[in-house]
Amino acid sequence: xAAGSPPAMENGDLRGAAAEYAQDGxxxxxxxxxxxxxxxxxxxxxxxxxxxxxxxMAYYGIASNLIIYLxxxxxxxxxxxxxxxxxxxxxxxxxxxxxxxxxxxxLGRYWTFVVGSVIYFMGMVLLVLSVSLPALKPPPCHAAVxxxxxxxxxGVYFGGLYIVAxxxxxxxxxxxxxxxxxxxxxxxxxxxHKLSFFNWWMFTIFLGILFSSTxxxxxxDNVSWSIGYGIPxxxxxxxxxxxxxGTKLYRHRVPQGSPFxxxxxxxxxxxxxxxxxxxxxxxxxxxxxxxxxxxKRKFRMDSTNSMRFLNKAAVKDNGGSPARWSPCTVTQVxxxxxxxxxxxxxxxxxxxxxxxxxxxxxxxxxxxxxxxxMGPRFQIPPASLGAFVTLxxxxxxxxxxxxxxxxxxxxxxxxxxITILKRMGIGMFLQVVTMGIASAxxxxxxxxxxxxxxxxxxxxxxxxxxxxxxxFVLMGLAxxxxxxxxxxxxxxxxxxxxxxxxxxxxxxxxxxGNILSSFLLSTVTRIxxxxxxxxxxNNLNASSLDYYYAFxxxxxxxxxxxxxxLSGLYRYKAESTxxxxxxxxxxxxxxxxxxxxLG
Length: 599
Fold this sequence. Notes:
single chain, Growth Hormone, Chain: A, two-stranded antiparallel sheet, 2 strands, disordered N terminus, disordered C terminus, dipeptide transmembrane transporter activity
C-alpha cells in the first residue's frame, strides 16, 4: 500500500464510505475498518444471543441446584453449603476483572472470550465426571448416617466448579460487550437499537435460567445428576460452535491498553505533582493532537474541573513539554475520573447483590422443608421456585421495554424513559420490600412448625411451598429493574476504551455481594450461637431465619438511602463526538478524492 493511502475496506472502495463506514472505530479481526452494511447489527447479535442462551443454561444448570447437591449428595451442613455456594458465585463474578484486563490490554475481547470458553467447557466436563463416576462421589446416607466426602471427591467437584469460574472470567465481561459493540453509537438508528439491546440481552438470559430452574433441576432431583449436568455441558459446546460460526459478521474493537496501567499512571503522577498548580486554561495541559486519536480510532476527551486534583497529572513542565515521569494526557486523566466516579455507586451494589444471593441458597432450603406435592406423584424441586423469579423478570422486561419506556419518554424526553439510576433505585426499593415480606413469611412458617411439633424433629411441613411465591416473584420484579439497569449503567458510563472494565465492574458487585453474604451468614450464625440461639442451623424449623431476613431488610434499607444520596450527586458523562466527526470528515474527503478523475 502506498504511503498515505486509505485503509483497506471490506469488499469495496471508498465511494460512499462516509455514509456506510462504522463510525465508532470498529474493525475486523485483521484490524481493517468495516462497513456497517457488512457487519454488526442484530444479524451479528443473533449468534451472540444464542450463545448466551445456552451458556446461561449451563451456568444456572449448576448454580440453581448447587446447594441441594452440596447438602444431599456431598452431605454438607446448611451454613457450610450456603457459604460454599456464595463463595463460588463470588469467585465467578470477580474473575471478570482479570478477563477485562486481558481483553483490554492484550488479546482483545474476541480472543479472550474464545480462550475463556475453552476453559469453561473443561470445567463443565470435570463436573459431569464428578457426579457420574461412583469413585468421585460419597455413598448415599444410610439410616441417618451420611458418610463425608473424601478429599479427592471434594477436590474434583470443587476443582470443576472453580475451573468454570476461571473460564467465566474470560467470557462474562466480554460477551455482552461484544454484543453491544455491534451497534454504532454514532448512527441514530443503531443507537436506538443499542438502547434496547440490554433489555433483550437479559430476556435471553432469563430464558436460559428458566430452562435450568425447571427442566434441568427436575432432571437432577428426579432422574439423574449425570443427565442434569450432561445436558448443559452439551449445550455449552453447541453455543461455542454457534458463536464461532458468526465470526465473519462481528465488529471488533482494537485493544487500547490496560486501563489499570493508565489509571495507575494518572494517580501516581497527580501525587508526585501535588504541589504543582493547575493552569487556568485547560489548553495548556498535555494532550495529543486530534489526528493521533483519529488515526488510532480512539476518542479524545476535553478537560473538566471535577476532581481537579487529578488534572495535575497532565501539567506540563516549564519547558512546555510533558515531564518525563508524567506522560499523562488529558484524555487519560478524564478516563480515570470517569471510573473513579463509578466506584461509590459500585459499592452501593454490594448489598443488593447479597440479597439476590439468598434466592439460590436460603430461599431454596426454605422450600425443601415444605409440602412440595402437586398431585399424588409429582414433587416440585425446591430450586424450581427460582423459575418464578425468571418468569417475572421476563414479563417485566418486555413490559418495561415495549410499554413503559414508550409511554414515559413522551413526557421525560429521555430515550430510555427514565434515567438508568432511577431504574436501579426502583429495583433496590423493591428488594427491601421483598426481604421484609420474606421475613414475615418465614415467621409464619416457623409458627406452623412449632404448632405441629416439627421444630424438634425437623420433618416436612404440611404448609405448601407456594407460600414462598411472593418473595420469589417480587425478587424477579426487582431484578428486572436493578440487574438490567446495573449492567447498562456501568457499560454506558465507562470510558469508550474501558467498556470491558465497565462490564466487569457490574459483575464485580455480584462477586463482592456473594462473598459478603458468606461473611454475614457466618458472622451472624457464630454470634447468635454463642448467645445460645443460632439464627440459622441445619434444622431450619428450629432456627430463627426470620430474624436473619429482618436483619438483611434493615441493611438493604440503609444501603438504599446511601444509593439515593449518591445517585443525586452523580452527573452522567457527556457524549463526545469530536473525534468521530474528524474521522467522518477525513473519510468524506478521501471519498471525494477517490471520485475525482485522474490527470
